[in-house]
Amino acid sequence: FSVSVDWVALSFVQRPEDLAEARKIARGRALIMAKIEKPQAVARLPEIIELSDALMVARGDLGVEMPLEAVPGIQKQITRAARRAGKPVVIATQMLESMITAPVPTRAEVSDVSIAVFEGADAIMLSAESAA
């Protein structure tokens, strides 16, 4: 059977060539979202943005790969660069994590989501928060 795919979120992009290879495999049948999770991707962000249809700021992996305190600034940098290029940007990982067990988000989470919106994110991605 045939499955239609609209988007491919490419994990652990480190260089523009990763996107070029994914495009070759997709053969124009799907749009490519580059998941920014590694310092190497941040270092080559302009080239990666150019070859992507959209970007995802994968904050969990970024926080493992580089100092945790650097992640908010990098989120802002990626969001601004994507907006300038006219590419959608999604902010992911632990946006409303407390809502796995609580009906109301924490003040810090509300602030975090607000900042993503104020910076111009096109979407936030929920994971375990919305799985129940």
Which terms summarize this structure?
TIM Barrel, 6 helices, globular, 132 residues, alpha/beta, five-stranded parallel beta sheet, 5 strands
Could you spell the SSE succession in H and E letters?
EHEHHEHHEHE
**Total beta strand runs:** 5
- Note the gap between the termini: 30 Å
Name of the top-level CATH class? Alpha Beta
Please identify, by name, the CATH architecture: Alpha-Beta Barrel
Q: Outline the biggest β-sheet.
A: 5 strands, parallel
- What's the CATH topology label? TIM Barrel
Q: How many structural domains are formed by the residues?
A: 1
CATH superfamily: Phosphoenolpyruvate-binding domains
Strand order of the largest sheet: 1-2-3-4-5
Which class best fits the helix and strand makeup? alpha/beta
| Mean pLDDT across all amino acids | 94
Task: Quickly describe the structure.
With 132 residues, the protein is an alpha/beta fold.
Q: Would you kindly provide a written description of the structure presented here, covering whatever features stand out?
A:
This protein has one domain (7-130): Alpha-Beta Barrel (TIM Barrel), CATH 3.20.20. Helices cover 43% and strands 17% of the residues. It contains six helices and five strands. It has helices at 16-26, 39-43, 45-51, 59-65, 71-84, 107-119; strands at residues 7-10, 31-36, 54-58, 89-92, 123-125. Strands 1-2-3-4-5 form a five-stranded parallel sheet. Strand 4, helix 6 and strand 5 form a beta-alpha-beta unit. The protein starts with 6 loop residues before the first strand and ends in a 7-residue tail after the last strand.
